[in-house]
Design brief:
mainly alpha; 2 helices
């Protein structure tokens, strides 16, 4: 992975941000998928707790998308 000190211009910085935010969001989506799968396989987890975990992950994803948009002026795809 590239460090911020190795970047030489704004294009490299934008690419660095895109890669970093994409990886972070992918990790959150993977966690969300795992939680959903676990709940469907073992519904003993209280639904309120399950729902709260899913909402928290979605909030984190939205936050990361918003920070990326504010830093680059573009939506994260």
């Amino acid at each position: 992975m590239t460090t911020i000190e190795e970047l030489k211009n704004s294009t490299e910085f934008k690419t660095f941000l895109h890669e970093t935010f994409t990886i972070m969001i992918k990790e959150l989506v993977d966690t969300e998928t795992q939680i959903i799968t676990n709940h469907h396989n073992n519904p003993t987890i209280p639904f309120d707790y399950y729902n709260l975990m899913i909402r928290e992950i979605n909030s984190q994803i939205l936050c990361k998308r918003e920070v990326y948009k504010r830093l680059t002026g573009e939506d994260l795809e």
